[in-house]
Every structure is written in structure tokens, then in C-alpha cells.
Amino acid sequence: MRMGWWKNKREVRLLVHLLFPLCLHWIGEEMTHSVLVDVTTNALCPGTSTCPQAIYLNGLQQTTVGIFKMVVLPVLGQLSDDYGRKPLLLFTISTTIFPFALIAINKSKGFVYAYYVLRTISLIFTQGSIYCITAAYVADVVDDNKKAAGFSWMMGFFSISHVLGNVLARFLPGTYIFQVSVVLLIFSPVYMTLYLSETVTPAPKLDQHLPYFKKALKIVEEQYNSMRYAANVVISSPTLKYISLALFFYELGMSGVNSTLLYYLKAAFGFDKNQFSEILMVVGIGQIISQLLVLPLITPSVGEKLILCAAFLSSALYALLYGLAWAPWVPYFTASLGVVNVVVKPSSFALISKASSSTDQGKAQGFVLAVQSIALLLSPLAMTPLTNLFLSKNAPFDCKGFSFVCASFSVATSLCFAWMLKPNASKTPSEVDAENAEAPLILASDASDPQRLRV
Origin, by domain of life (predicted)? Predict the structure, then answer.
């Protein structure tokens, strides 16, 4: 990465205080993933390696989250533009503490069901929204020519957290994993409260003395107008429109793969916590290399569009190989494709950010993520019963990973839309002014205005 990145100490300080607590939060979440498969299977289907109840519960959770995220994500993105990134980040990451605290207390069947209820509520507010608000924060802090590198570093730190979380899961005894996770999840919002600076100056409100009922109605009306405006911003921009479609089909396939993968590997190859952790570590190490070393170096040369297309192609192959896995070593090899797959998020964040005005960062990111949540809603409706069918003795033919093969075709469709992107097409000044004139509650100051940063 160019040394100029490090010359601005203000940028570095703001990003450190953002990414350090998020890393701890991601470590606390990641270290539980490989263990949860064994915990839920032992609680709901004791003595078996295949647990249809757990797979259906995961599908139900994913569908419920997808329904509510379609509304919640754009609202959270808009609220972060209006009221600041810090309070929204504090709220979202704090909701993760409670479900894991339940499992830390007890791993019985009743507590596992309670965990699923609280975790579903938590995911409605956290899945996608943390990336959305964090991406908007990074966009506030760094210049346009550094945004791709900034998003790459953001996702790179996520990948480091991914590896560290799985290292802890691999070597810590299972009885201590959830206790350590809860400690990290509590520490993160505490650190943010003390050290994270706000990058948005809330717009002055002229309705502070309105009666509460009228104020509530006004807030609902403002949220509706803002969401409608965000939809207009995305639809009127060819780049945002095509990337929304591409990410929809990508999420439709990959969310189904990610939600059932560990249960599939346990049923097909008898994998346990240790094998899960090793596979996830392979993925994480590849992600670190890609995001912190490869992506910042090649982005200026080839551009975000080609990187995104390569990531979609690799993801389609990733799902296909898992579906056709014929030996226990194949999942380990397939996991290495994560070195390319992981650049979907930073490259798409950069494309969305460049196609949006400085006052619409949160709205645009939130609306595109809401489109993805529609796919998150639809995916389990096909993947969950299909996965259970081919893992059972009643499968029509012998291909336990057939649902993953189907998912690979959905991901391949996203490649077609990504190829149609024209990221260099820019709006004329008159178009930008016309759109900004319609925006409700947008900030008058630009992201580069020093008054917008509270350092």
C-alpha cells in the first residue's frame, strides 16, 4: 500500500479506534461458530451426526432475519447519516451479547431454543448493518482515491479476527469458549464508548417543541421519505442498479451455502469442532492475504469491476466443489478459494461508495444491503429442505451436496450482472444537484468538511 496512506495521522487514529473494538467483537462471534454445530446437534439430536431440526431452525432463523432486514437495514443506514455512526454501532454490536451469554450459562435444549430466539433478534440488527455503518464511517474518514484500500483494510481486519477466533476455538476447551466470547463482546462497546470519535454532525432539528404524537408521526414520515429517496438513488444509477442485482443473486446462493455448510460436512464426512476450525482458519488466512496485501496493490491497476467479477467466478466454483466433494480433503482445498471470494464485500463497498454522493453513503449502502436481505429471506426456502432431502436416506440420487451445486448456478448469474457494470460512468453536476435537492434530512456539509469530524 502506498505510504501516503499513513501520512494522515487523523485518518489512522480514527480507523484504529473503529477497527480495534470491531476486531474483538468479530473474534468473539467467530470463535463460537464451529462449536455451535456440536452444541445444537447434541442438544436437539443427541447421539446422531445429522440433525434436521438444527438445519430447519437455521433456515427459519435466516428467513425471519431476511424479512425484517428489508426494513431495518435502510432505516439504520439512514439513521447513521442523520444521527451519527457511533450510536448506531454501539446499539448493533451490543445486541450480540445476550444470546451467547445464554449458551455460556447452560447448553440444554431449552437454552438452545432461547438462544435461537435472541440470536434471531440480534441478527436482524447486526447482520449486514455493522458492515454498512462501518463502511459509511470509513467513507467519511478517507479520501475517494483511498476508499477501496480503506474498505480492503476493514475487511482485512475482519479476516484477521476470523482466523484468531478459529484459533481460539481450535485450542480452547469447549467449556470455556462461550465465556471468553462474552467477555470480548462486552469489552467492544465499552471501548467504543470511551474512544470512538463521531464523524457526522447531526443536522439541527426544527421540531423539538412538537407534541410527542406529532413528533412520532413526523419521524415515521421522514423515514418513509428517506427510504423512498434511497430507492430512487439506487434505481437512477446504472452502477447501483446492476450491483444490487449482482449482490442479490450472489447472496441467494452463498447465504444458503454458508448457513448449511458445517452441518453438511458433519453429516457427509463426520467433521467435528477441530476440523471446522481448521477449515475456517484456511479461509481466514486466505482472506488476510487477499485483503491486506493483494487487493490494495491490484485495485489501482485493474479496477473494482474486474476484481468483483473474479470474486463471483471463484465463489461459483467454491459452491460447486463443496457440492461435488468426494473426499475429506476436498473441503480443505475448496476453502483456499476464500482468498478470492472475500473481495466481494470491499470491492462492492467501493463501487457503491463511488456511485453515491457524500451525503448518501449510509442510505445507498443500507438500501443495497436490504436488497441482499430479500435473497437472505428466499434462500432457506429452497436450500433447507433440499439439503435435508439429500442428506437423508430418501435422496433421489447419491449427491449429498446437490443443494450446493444449485447454489453455484445462482452465484454464476451474479457474474453476468457484474460484467454489465460501468463504474466509470459519472453523473453530471446538474443531476447530482437535482437529486440532492430531493433528499430529506441530508447534511449540508461535505465529508471533507473539518466541522464534520469530531476528533
Answer: Eukaryota
- Written as nine digits, the cell of 428 is 453530471
pLDDT at residue 113, as a whole number: 93
pLDDT digits (tens, 9 = 90+) for 218-274: 655 776 777 677 777 777 777 788 888 888 999 888 888 888 888 888 888 888 777
Cβ–Cβ under 8 Å, residues 375 and 248: yes
* Cell numbers placing 387: 439439503
Kindly report the CATH number that applies to the domain delimited by 3-199+230-440. 1.20.1250.20
Report the alpha-carbon distance of residue 95 to residue 87 in Å, rounded. 13
The structure's pTM equals 0.68
Query: CA angle, 183 as apex, 178 and 185 as ends, to 5°?
Result: 90
All 3 cell numbers of residue 160? 484477521
Scan for cell 430507492, then name that residue. 231
Q: How many other C-beta atoms are found inside a 10 Å radius of the C-beta of residue 8?
A: 14
Measured distance CA(372)–CA(245) in Å, rounded: 9
* Residue ranges covered by each domain of the chain: 3-199+230-440
Provide the grid cell at 2.
502506498
Q: Among candidates 233, 239, 248, which has minimal Cα distance to 78?
A: 233
Task: Specify which of 117-126, 152-161, 291-300 reaches the highest per-range mean pLDDT.
Answer: 117-126
Q: How far apart, in Å, are the Cα atoms of 158 and each of 19, 30, 278, 369? A: 9, 10, 17, 18
